[in-house]
Amino acid sequence: MTSSVLIIDNTDSVRSHIIGKYKKFDLIEHISGARDGIDGFKSLIAANPDINICDLEMPRTNGYKFVYDRKRLPT
User: What is the C-alpha to C-alpha distance for residues 55 and 9, in angstroms, rounded to an integer?
Assistant: First the structure.
């Protein structure tokens, strides 16, 4: 079983570090990153990843708003 992961964090070094860690897993087919909740939501709509990892404090749209909006999407 393969999966896809979306990492949302406004700090480039943190986002890159987490993406690097996930690339070590053979079961993960696609890993993408976004710099805030707005970009993350666009990536979510476009790719529909299996796993979302999100920072809570970010500019423009924070992680709480991202999770709230994510829960409102139809499954």
Answer: 5
Give the residue among 69, 2, 12, 15 at the shortest CA–CA distance from 42. Answer: 69
Distance CA 71, CA 54 (A): 14
At residue 61, φ and ψ (nearest 5 deg) are -130, 125
Render pLDDT for 28-50 as a digit per residue (tens, 0 to 9): 889 999 999 999 999 999 999 99
Residues with Cβ within 8 Å of 36's Cβ and at least 6 positions away in sequence, in order, are 8, 10, 58, 59, 60, 61
Would you give the distance in Å from CA 43 to the centre of its chain? 8
Q: Which domains does the chain have, with CATH numbers?
A: 3-72 (3.40.50.2300)
Strand partners, 4: 30
